[in-house]
Write a structure and sequence with these properties.
Aspartate Aminotransferase, domain 2, 2 domains, eight-stranded mixed beta sheet, single chain, 323 residues, three-stranded antiparallel beta sheet, Coenzyme F420 hydrogenase/dehydrogenase, beta subunit C-terminal domain, FrhB_FdhB_C
Amino acid sequence: MQDNKKAIGYYIGHIVDQDIRYRASSGGIGTAIVKYLFSFPEYKTSVTFYFDEENCRYIPKLIYQASDINICGSIYQDIDLVGFIRQHLSEISGGIVLTCLPCQVNAIRALLEKHNIPNFIISFVCSGQTTLEGTYCYYRFLGIKKENIKKMQYRGNGWPSGIQIFLKDGTEINRDNYSEPWSLIHRSVLFRPKRCFFCKKDTSYASDISLADPWLDEYIAHDKIGNTMFLVNTNLGQRILLDMSSKNIINTVRSSWELYCKAQAPNVNKEIYVYNKQNFLRMEQKIVENRIYHRVFSLTPFNMKIHLYLMRILDKIYMKRYE
């Protein structure tokens, strides 16, 4: 289990602005931080994400004012943000505040500090990414053609919400969070980036703030708008959050390492899972990387279920072999 002293503090809260709170993925704390830091002269740049209708995907974009933040919930699409920042270093004005994957924090921080760019980095709890092709597979399983999609988003507009697809003919398709067939696609790992198979990170304690969903009974039962469970990892992060709270920008309550472990148990226990399953994971990774296997078992939801059945059998075999 992780060291409970890695984070300075544990909290649950939400932005006071109810519109942003509703439209954000869970509570809007991340959006609140970006908006707040834009009010300081040292932070003049951030990164937001826009849906590119032509290519049917989300793309990152540098922005220079809070009004350009695109509140679009979570993005379950693997994006090379490190490469994006590297390519656009010359366009960063002043300091930058951004949100990125746990595995991207150290690389982005090192890159920015190498070029003497002040930064505030927000990370989040990650259950493993899905490639863009995984989203395209999702459309296919729903019988939707990419060229008919005007916009989509994975989360936001209530909590826990889910995938929302808007077609050019005015049709709107809504699927609950992690319902089928998205859950099936995610669990299959057929569209999982290679680096995710052996990832042991629940979040990045090198970021200033880490965000998470509060998957606790009281929030699951009663919260329909959204709250953010978040970890404060640096003194800078602590100072910013205290300032925002004192100015009534956010409402927060103290949480704890124990509640974080309960709310994010599968992610907190990833290190143990990877250690116990490393031989199976190596085998699984090689199998799903086989082009013929991948093509056959991602063809239909039924085929994908067969793939999961085969992986369960192999998992049992490997566990017995290496006990």
